Amino acid sequence: MQLKVTNSPFTEEQVELLNKLLPTLTEAQTQWLGGFLTFYRAGAASAETAASAQLIAPALEQAAQAVASVSAAPREATILFGSQTGNSQRLAGKLAEKLKAQGFDVTLSAMNAYKTNGLKKTAHLFIVASTHGEGDPPDNALTFHEFLYSKRAPKLDGLKFSVLALGDTSYEFFCKTGIDFDERLAELGAERLTARVDCDLDFEGPAGEWMASVIGALDAATGAGAAAATAGAPSASAATAPAESEYSRSNPFKAEVLTTINLNGRGSDRETRHLELSLEGSGLSYEPGDCVGIYPENDPALVDSIIAAMNWSPSEVVVPGKDGDEGTLRSALLRQFEITVLTKPLLEKAAAFTDNGQLAELLAPEKKAELKAYTNGRDLLDLLQDFGPWKLTAAGLVSILRKMPPRLYSIASSNKANEDEVHLTIRKVEYEAHGRARGGVCSVQVSERLAEGDSLPIFIQHNPNFKLPANPETPIIMVGPGTGVAPFRAFLEEREELGSEGKTWLFYGDRHFVTDFLYQTDWQRMLKDGVLTKLDVAFSRDTKEKVYVQHRMLQQAAELYAWLQEGAHVYVCGDEKHMAHDVHNALLTIIEQQGGLDAEAAKAYLAELQAQQRYQRDVY
Amino acid sequence: MTKGHKVEPVGGPPSDVEHLKKESNYLRGSLVESLQNRITGGLSELDNRLLKFHGSYMQDDRDVRNERQKQKLEPSFQFMLRVVTPGGVSTPEQWLVIDELAEKYGSGSIKLTTRQAFQLHGVLKWNLKDTIRTINDTLLTTLAACGDVNRNVMCNPNPEQSQVHSDVFYWAQQITNHLAPRTPAYHEIWLDGEKLIDSTELLKAEGADPVEPIYGPVYLPRKFKIGIAVPPSNDVDVYSQDLGYIAIVEKGKLVGFNVTVGGGMGMTHGDTNTYPQLGRVIGFIRPEQVNDIAEKTVTIQRDYGNRSVRKYARFKYTIDRHGLDWFVAELQERLGWELEPARPFHFESSGDRYGWQKDKNGRWNLTLYIQSGRVADQEGYELKTGLREIAKIHTGDFRLTANQNLMIAGITTAKKAKIIELLGKHGITDGGNHSAIRRSSLSCVALPTCGLAMAEAERYLPTLIDKLEPILEEIGLRDDEINIRMTGCPNGCARPALGEIAFIGKSPGKYNMYMGAGFSGDRLSKLYRENVDENEILDTLTPILHRYAAERDNNEHFGDFVIRTGYVKPVLSGTDFHS
């Protein structure tokens, strides 16, 4: 068999090298190499490799000794992640695979599940952490973040580390959690193995480079031979998950729209789409709690306004064509680039193309507040209109824009109950700002420009931090107002499909009972059939005093606490800023009152639930 | 007529509703729990049945029923609330309360019904209790506005017109109180147990039910309707009532009433065993005997009405089954006294007199034409706002008429000018600007809220009249009253069987067309065309109206004309309605 790019996971260059080498090997050399490679995959000892390892045991031993003799620092590393939607976790896992393949002894853990006394024992620490909202750490990074900043944090002299930070430049506190870890570890005496890398929404590239630099530096530090050419070989990761679909974040599947329904009744001031997408032929599968990423299209009216404002030709080719797309200015602005969000890096790059001093002035360090006020609610059209005249070509503009980021939506269906389908719940975001009607790119597209039979480029984003309990009999409490209810439809469908007898309790809320009770008849049926044990609802605009889910929780404090004591898992999904915060406080109050605990003890109780993965949140 | 002639009640297993009533523990059922359930805006079938006795129906907006099903939303459940207003009389304070509730909890408008009651639509389940409590706080009630009990007692709405009218109104209130259900369930559920007005204690006969001495634990087999007419006006359509009283006035004094029994409007399409019927006069009674007659008549229907098949359960069928003689004998046995022979009387019309009238006390009464009884604001015709402004300064009463119109009664000379000013400011007229046929029209609510409707009524009749008006104008009949009535189903809320021209809904856009009822409500109409749409209606009516204009005798009413000229046969008894 001849190795080719098409029948192997290797690049053209690698195939060439391997094909040059392999035919020259003797039988003994082939066996030795097999053992050597097995060693490189230490930890993934399948029955198959164990059997072949026996055959070649002497060779293996030899190889191990050879590696050990050249090692200086221990080939050992700890990788910790703080992840909300699963991106950081996935990247941390990727690094772990790479290091294991290099023969490293790797400890991979979520930050909240990590025993902090391990910090003094490890030689290398790698951190992958995302940032949420106003610079907040993800849920499973909270306790570790707090620990490092507390007086109990140990001196970490001798520890080598590096941080990969995920974030979004459109937020003021870009990558703050990663920055916090990076700075604090240095303060505690640890030494940077490589510089921190901060990633914007399009993180795959920079994350790959960070991993390459980390591995390179480790090689140097531990004295390993450069024998394994790992740096800059991203395609190697394909080998780690052979059963997965060919479709991914970087290769989205075009899913056909089977059904699109507005879930809000006539007279509502909201519009929420229930989308049913076909996964037929994709090989994609998902678990309850996972998300779908959608690559949306920008509003054609906005794209045309931008092109008209600059007096450019929509058909000018500005980027390489792909997938039958010719890469014209219009199609690139529609599908490939973000045009609805202004970030500081974009403004800085744009400033080079205008003599309008106002833009440079706005970017001055002391004008931080003014900059924030300007970018808030404005888009590319505003920028181009406000700071001309421009010395900018269409291709030049495109080169400074961020790639179109995918939008993530919690899946509202169970794969077991809906083979080859995935359901989503998407609320249209619309608002008026700076004299113009504006809206969410994806939600407006889905609401206004997507019909049954059309298709959407999607991928599955697994979320290991929002999962049903392993035991289907464990009671679950679900708090999901508004579109936050989506994953709980998936949870309940799954439990129904499994025939689980575990108790289930849903707290739901929205504005008006009559028009905004998402999936009302689904819940009614599930209540009747016993799949849903309890349902409590709060509609905030139907009564004089606004009632929210947390009020319903407090009204049922005794029973809710009893469920917790029985081992119930608590899930919260939806708005982070207000709802998740209020629900968190309601839980603390309930634990405090019902458990007869003081505030500190209640906090510890809830932290313990979180550490045991019995309190999980999917908030945005 | 043999005294003591006994008949057997109708056999057959009791209907489901009878079981529900029996198990409800005097109308309680599980209403309290159902009202607290926040997951649905509706009620269970059982509780909805019981809720009717409390004055409310569960409905849903049928315009959006199918679309909501696709949206995974339950039907847009909402409640109609009917307020008992004997004789249609309410104070300005009460008007303001109803007006505010319509805005706060209802669909924004007030419906004046064909039985002189207020109706609010669109009340959500969670607001029912507050709405009902507020209504009770203003000394009105919803108890027994619907359900298998005596309904709102109708009477000519103008007690100020003469002492007679005033006396008649007094008796309407007496009957209402006497036949009101006694169960404490209403107060328990809606008023947290408090009872605002203590109804007159009944003399409890031996062996009578301890909670409901008149009705017993399963109440009546169907609804029961009572109305009092003051000749020459038959505005209450006395012959359409299960039990009717016709005031007999001698030398300017109310001396008593002729009693009619066995009238009723409802029927079922395709079932000729069901039919509208006219009440028949059975004799004369003295005023103080009014309650006794009402009570004993009700107990006969309680004991002999059909409890097996609800569509055959109205009192008219009980009488037609056993004969009028049997009924009179049974009644007199229960009364322990005999009725006197009926006395002469004469009806002229069943319509309202619009405009200003001065009464015996020197006060002014203004009757306003209210299309379909719907009090709402329109551009240039701010009826609801205008009436609210009037209620704020008015020292008399508001009177709901049996023709869905409104009388502002007892206006002092001092207030008259101010009220005229307010009417003008809000574009309200007495209806003189409308054609006579429009002013003589009646329609029920029908779509979108009524669960029984098969076709439009309130939302469509005005449009049909728009198309008839030019025809009438052309032939010079603009100011001639012709009673025209439309209902969305054959249950007859707008008394179509007593319309000179009537339409009963069959399916969307299609109606059965009837003609020939008496102008004063003394003769039923007759089916003339089946399943006709608007074009067929206009094509059919136009030549008849032309001929009527050309060939009618002096003051000959349309209903009489179509009989004389042979379009339809006269129907003087419901048993001939289908023949």
Automatic annotation (TrEMBL), chain A:
Pfam families: FAD_binding_1, Flavodoxin_1, NAD_binding_1. It comes from the Bacteria. GO terms for cellular component: cytosol. Residues 77-215 form the Flavodoxin-like domain. The keyword ATP-binding does not apply. FAD binds at T340, R407, L408, Y409, S410, Y431, G440, V441, C442, S443, Y620. Its EC number is 1.8.1.2. Binds 1 FMN per subunit. Its cofactor is FMN; FAD. Gene3D superfamilies: 3.40.50.360, NADPH-cytochrome p450 Reductase, Chain A, domain 3, Nucleotide-binding domain of ferredoxin-NADP reductase (FNR) module, Translation factors. GO terms for biological process: cysteine biosynthetic process. Residues 250-469 form the FAD-binding FR-type domain. NADP(+) binds at S540, R541, K546, V547, Y548, V549, Q550, D582. The keyword Amino-acid biosynthesis applies. It catalyses: hydrogen sulfide + 3 NADP(+) + 3 H2O = sulfite + 3 NADPH + 4 H(+). Keywords: Amino-acid biosynthesis, Cysteine biosynthesis, Electron transport, FAD, Flavoprotein, FMN, NADP, Oxidoreductase, Transport. FMN binds at S130, T131, H132, G133, L166, G167, D168, T169, S170, Y171, E172, F173, F174, C175. PROSITE patterns: FAD_FR, FLAVODOXIN_LIKE. GO terms for molecular function: flavin adenine dinucleotide binding; FMN binding; oxidoreductase activity, acting on NAD(P)H; sulfite reductase (NADPH) activity. This is assimilatory sulfite reductase (NADPH).
UniProtKB/TrEMBL annotation, chain B:
[4Fe-4S] cluster binds at C444, C450, C489, C493. GO terms for biological process: cysteine biosynthetic process; hydrogen sulfide biosynthetic process; sulfate assimilation. Binds 1 siroheme per subunit. Binds 1 [4Fe-4S] cluster per subunit. Residues 77-132, 357-425 form the Nitrite/Sulfite reductase ferredoxin-like domain. Its EC number is 1.8.1.2. Alpha(8)-beta(8). The alpha component is a flavoprotein, the beta component is a hemoprotein. This is Sulfite reductase [NADPH] hemoprotein beta-component. The lineage of its organism: Bacteria, Bacillati, Bacillota, Bacilli, Bacillales.
